[in-house]
Amino acid sequence: EAIVEDRLRTCPAGRFADRVGVRGPMLAGSIGMACGAVIATVVPGLPALFVTAVLLGLSFMAFQVAAQYATGEMGPPAARTRNFGLLAVGYSTSSIGGPLIAGFMIDHVGFRAAFGLLSLLPLAPIAILGRRVRGLSRAVQDRVADVSSHVDETLHEIRTVQAFAHERRES
Asked: Scanning 2, 36, 113, 126, which has the fewest C-beta atoms within 10 Å of its C-beta?
C-alpha cells in the first residue's frame, strides 16, 4: 500500500522534472533538505522532528526523481543500464552509510549537533546548482527584456498607424 502511494506522489514530480529540467527540482530538493536539518537543529522537540521528517522526505523525493531523470538522459541508450546501476549503488551505499554515520554522530555530539552538521551536506549541490540557476536567470531576464521591447515597439507602431488613420477625421 505504501509503495503505491509513493508511486502516485512521484508521478507528478517526474512530470514536473520533464517540464522544467533537473536543476530546479534538484536545487529545491537540496534547499529543502538543508532547511529540514536546520529545523531539527534550531527547534527542539517532537513536533519539529515531524516537520523535519516530512520536509526531508519530500525534498529527497524531488532530488531523487530529478537525479533519475538526469541519469536516464546521460550518455547513449546502451549505457543506461550501467548508469542506473551506478545510481542504485550510490543510493544503496548511502542507505547503509547514512544511518551509521548519523548514529555515531548522535552518540558522540547529540542529535541537535548531528542535524546541524548534516545540514551542511546539501550546501555542495546548492552551490553547484545555484551557480547555474543564476546564469539561467540572467538569460531568462535578457529574454524577457527582448520580448518586452518587441511588445512595446509593436504597441507603439499600432498607435502610430492609428494616429495616421485618424489624421483626416481630426483636421
From this structure: 2
